[in-house]
Design a protein that fits this description.
The protein has one domain: TIM Barrel. Helix content is about 55%, strand content about 15%. The protein is built from eight helices and five strands, in the order H-E-H-E-H-E-H-H-E-H-E-H-H. A five-stranded parallel β-sheet has the order 1-2-3-4-5. Strand 2, helix 3 and strand 3 form a beta-alpha-beta unit. The radius of gyration is 21 Å and the shape is elongated.
Length: about 150
């Protein structure tokens, strides 16, 4: 992992190295963050794992919400537990809500205090949608059309 990280770090100063939440991944995280490199610890499925990543100096922790939901657990509960632990101890590790599947995941993650999210394009586009926005836009356009005016 360290050899690959060294190659990736040469690409640009803002590269964030992604490592798995394993003992070796956390050792790499510690070494990389000690040298000033940003690190995203991924494949997090519990608050205990997130605590280990923060102690190793992770820049980001990536709990996988949708995958937890898929096995009958509450991904948002894990985000909430991580937020509480990080706030309790002043950890600077940012919570990157990953495996988001719905607009409600986005809203809940934001309400809980996740710092960052990876959102699929379809979900991102759905954030704009609301029936009252669509209805209001139709009314505005209809009113404008009645004026007979044109811009440009």
């Amino acid at each position: 992992m360290m050899k690959e990280a060294a190659l990736l770090a040469k690409i640009a100063s803002n590269i964030c190295i992604k490592v798995p939440l394993t003992p070796d991944g956390l050792k790499a995280c510690k070494a990389l963050t000690d040298s000033g490199q940003m690190v995203n610890v991924t494949l997090c499925f519990s608050a205990n794992q997130a605590l280990l990543a923060a102690k190793a100096g992770a820049t980001f922790i990536s709990p996988f919400i949708g995958r937890l939901d898929d096995i009958g657990l509450d991904g948002m509960e894990v985000i909430s537990e991580i937020r509480t632990i990080y706030d309790n101890y002043g950890f600077e590790t940012e919570i990157l809500a990953a495996s988001i599947r719905t607009v409600n995941h986005v809203k809940q993650a934001a309400l809980i205090g996740a710092d960052v999210a990876t959102i699929p394009p379809a979900t991102l586009k759905a954030l704009f949608k609301h029936p009252l926005t669509d209805k209001g836009l139709e009314a505005f356009l209809a009113d404008w059309a009645k004026t007979g005016q044109k811009i440009g």
